[in-house]
Design goal:
Blueprint (H helix, E strand, L loop, with lengths): L1 E2 L3 E8 L5 E9 L9 E2 L4 E6 L6 E8 L7 E12 L34 H5 L5 E11 L2 E11 L14
Antiparallel strand pairs: 1-9, 2-3, 3-4, 5-6, 6-7, 7-8, 8-9
């Protein structure tokens, strides 16, 4: 999350019961400021999904730094990109990272029509989205942009996602 005066990096990975596997939350200031990175504590998040999907339409991420006022960031995905399709993660039988093609240069491409149900159904898994962020701390609001990456895979009790 890139704001005018700082950036925030937040990572949360949980199992289906909500047990944390990985978490990190840090605010980074420009090097010229001379300020060290600020640990923001445990990140808490609340995604809102489009009905009947696992597509995040809005999310809130909050932080409670030990040395400072609470921070709440609202995330609004602007342009999602499904990284599992056409990028070598192994879903296509003829294209994977490191897969030998031939001694010659091989160039491939694919087009998907998202108005078609079959093509839409292929867009699952990890999503990187250009996103707009609104950071509120101590009554001050700062707007920014950046990358919002998510993957809602399987059941996840804390957010109410079921396998069905």
């Amino acid at each position: 999350m890139q704001f005018e005066e700082f950036s925030i990096l937040a990572i949360v990975q949980e199992d289906g019961a909500g047990n944390r596997i990985i978490e990190e939350a840090v605010r980074v200031w420009p090097e010229s400021s001379g300020r060290p990175p600020q640990q923001l504590g445990r990140p808490e998040y609340r995604p809102q999904y489009a009905p009947g999907t696992r597509d995040v339409v809005r999310a809130t991420i909050s932080f409670s730094p030990a040395s400072g006022k609470p921070i709440e960031v609202t995330v609004r995905p602007v342009q999602p990109v499904s990284l599992m399709v056409g990028t070598g993660y192994g879903l296509e039988p003829d294209w994977r990272h490191g897969m030998y093609q031939s001694p010659d240069l091989v160039v491939q491409g694919a087009c998907y029509d998202l108005s078609e149900a079959g093509d839409r159904a292929r867009m699952w898994g990890m999503v990187d989205s250009v996103a707009a962020f609104e950071c509120v701390q101590g009554g001050e609001t700062t707007a920014g942009y950046g990358l919002f990456e998510y993957w809602a895979l399987g059941e996840h009790a804390p957010t109410g996602l079921t396998a069905g």
